Amino acid sequence: MLLSTVIFDLDGTVIDTGPLIADSFRHAVKTVLGKTIDDKEMLAYVGGWSLREQMCRLAPDRSQELVEVYRAYNEPRHADVDFCPGMQELLLALRAEGVRIGLATAKRRATIEIAFRYLPQLEGLFDTIVSSDDTERHKPDPAPLLLALERLGAKPEAGAYVGDSPFDVEAAQAAGLRSIAVTWGGIHDEERLLTAEPDTIVSTTAELIIALEVSPA
Question: Which of 19, 51, 132, 216 is 20–30 Å from 37 (CA)?
């Protein structure tokens, strides 16, 4: 039997945007700050806070420029985005089993709508969607996950949060959800994910469906 509630991160978990996010971040930093950011420094920002918070932490006095250049590069390239392998089928299978499915992402609502426009198959897969516009605090704070649980009328002990970054794992733990890290995101490798100590780490959707089974009493 499966858990009754599963909340997903979007980027690098449901849709294959990890490489695009990394490219967009590097482009913004190079264009605005005139420097090349190494992967270690970039990983300290990507996958948790909202884009604006990421850029404020990186360069407070240039954050608005960084955000604008990032979005100008990133948003049109959503036309080439697809599901992560097996994720569309997994989400449909969960819905068929009666699982309540939420989405909690650091994307703002307008950017989510762009992703949905280019991938209309996303429509109807989620019972609730929490964007960065919906909470004052963002991952690794549990606020987005707690709001998703509230909207779904669900208890954390009966659910899981699935994401591709250490920030996702930390948010799940703080919300009392089972934390499941996926390795296919394209930004944070398995070693980095393990530092957050997720309950489970998976490399395929077949492993993920097993991880979503109710634990024996």
Answer: 132
> Helix, strand, or coil here: 110?
helix
Quick one: 48 and 150 in the same domain? no
Directed axis angle between helix 18-28 and helix 63-74, to 10°? 140
- Look up the pTM and report it: 0.91
- Residue 48's nearest CA partner among 149, 123, 145 is 145
pLDDT in tens, 28-52: 999 999 999 887 777 777 766 778 8
- The parent domain of residue 99 ranges over 5-17+81-211
Answer yes or no: are the C-beta atoms of 95 and 125 closer than 8 Å. yes
79's CB contacts (< 8 A; 6+ apart) are: 118
Q: Is 9 annotated as catalytic?
A: yes
Annotated catalytic residue: which of 9, 16, 127, 141? 9
